[in-house]
Amino acid sequence: MANTKKLDLSDALEDRPETRRLLATLQHEASSMRSYASTLTASFEGVVEAQTATCRATDTLAQHLEHFKEQSFAEKQGFISDSVKKLGESVQQLKSWQEMLATQMDQAMVRPLTDFIAVDLTEVDRQRELFELASQEHDSAMVKYSRTSKRRETDKARFEANAELYMARKKFHEVALQYFSTLKSLEHKKKLTMLNPLMSFIHAQLSYFKMGHEILTDEMSRFLTAVTVEINKLQGDHNSDMKTLAARREKLEKEYASRYNPDPDPTGMSLSVGLNVSAY
Predict the structure, then answer these.
(1) How many angstroms separate the Cα of 257 from the Cα of each of 170, 188, 271?
(2) How far is CA 205 from CA 63, 95, 104, 108, in A?
(3) Which of 13, 68, 132, 260 has the fewest CB within 10 Å, making it most exposed?
(4) What angle do CA 249, 255, 256 make, to 5 degrees?
(5) pTM listed for this prediction
(6) Could you report the per-residue pLDDT of 112-146, keeping only the tens digit for each?
């Protein structure tokens, strides 16, 4: 709405063609602003809904981890069960932060835009309707006054026509002043409404990550490091066990190959070797 700066309150009573053209342009821009603000609100709502869904999923995960200790395969004591318990508590804490982030984004992003549409832009539309109605009433009073003057009506009729035109002009002027003021105010509110929700979104995200960094205390850092070390050790033990198991299996397969044949072969050839040869 860059043209709003050309709209002067002194033009409210002087209903000139250029003022009407400027008003038409501003009304079109206000309509476009409503359309854009509505789609932007939908985008913000999508972000909040996604964050809310993340909260629900994280809460489900935390509850699932809570039931780990009840499983028959879970060791009742030891490193794994203790680690799952502590990590589950951390997941639950993460969920509370995510809820806080979702609330902040809803209050600072979605609500200002919905209020802007419901209050400010709706008020512009209402003022436009009042302005158009007052303009029509002023035109009608002007026509009636002109006809009364030309027909040499009685003093009473001219007085009434004059009084009606006076009231119509007064009303039109007051309505126009309010309408022009609303349009000029919208120029400033538009800038704030477009920037503030975006700034709030960025600040909310930064605060969320900053909170996580600050709460990552030395104790938690040491715990995560210890878990990582233990995981690496478990992975190393697993790899070593798999190599030993593979070698043991290969050895057993070779040792027991001759026992698979119920009738010993006098040639000493293993049946598996014979099957392999006959396959070719």
Answers:
(1) 112, 89, 8
(2) 25, 15, 10, 12
(3) 260
(4) 90
(5) 0.70
(6) 999 999 999 999 999 999 999 999 999 999 888 88
